[in-house]
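Weekly structure sync, notes
Attendees: PL (lead), two postdocs, one rotation student
Agenda item 3: pending single-chain targets
PL asked that the sequence for the first pending target be pasted directly into the notes so everyone works from the same version. It is reproduced below exactly as submitted, 290 residues in total.
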Amino acid sequence: MIKKAVTEEKTLTEQLQFPVEVFIRKNREDPMEENFHWHDCFEILYVLKGKAEYLSGAKQEIFPLVPGDFVLIRCREIHTIICSAQDETEILVVKFMPSAISSPYFHCSDFSYISAFLNSENVYHLESQEQNEIRKILESIYQEYSTKRKAYELVIRSDVYRLAAACIRHHMIILPEHVPDAEYQALLPALRFIEKNYATDITLHQISEMLHLNYIYTSRFFKKIVGKSFKQYLDYIRISEAEKLLLNSRDYIYIIAAKCGFSSQQTFVRTFKRIRGYSPKVKKRSFSSK
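Predicted structure, written out during the meeting:
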């Protein structure tokens, strides 16, 4: 039985000069029977040998993994990996903070929720051509990180960009519409405000006043840059935070709803079901290993 505690991994932070970590995890040496957890970095898993299971805390689903499978875990997604003690499973793991791909093309990489908000899948059973392309990039990252030759950081950053580009081309990563840097910079204060104050009664009127724009234009402007409406994005953040409390708290539903900015339990339950596809009441009792 997997414990249901949810913890935040603190291996990587934006304060690190080079916020990247690469290693091969071997089940026989480091058993893959973890608590559900989340972190503020991206995590890539590539199955080299054996088999395992990826458990999605968001979807309440179990995904079997075999060699060649690629798992993309986005910032703040609740997840875990499990594996039978008898299996000689090896998984290549690459972790990096959003700043590792921060550039005009990846405007929204600075924000923890946007990538997960715009993308729904985690596990990809790659075709041979896709598999070869991605494996070569991951092997290059691993080799550079292991040897740490001069300027290895530059090579790894370059490879992370190549990996992100491959994921975009193969439709594993969806980005908001590419917009001019000036427009993105104009929305920055609003995005920061939402991520820090999601538990309060935030309204689009507040955002429009903050940006010194009229209400209708703000609505269109937000959707253009983020890819979804203001309310869709705010609801997603609130549900993501509520999900962590549901897995790691004994609070009643109405208390969790209030802590995450919902005006009532009914509104919370309705929103949760719309976004996740099931009732939040079943969350605590759903996960166990086979």
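Discussion points:
- Residues 7-169 form a domain with the Jelly Rolls fold (CATH 2.60.120.280).
- The first helix runs from residue 114 to 118.
Action: rotation student to compare against the earlier draft before next sync.
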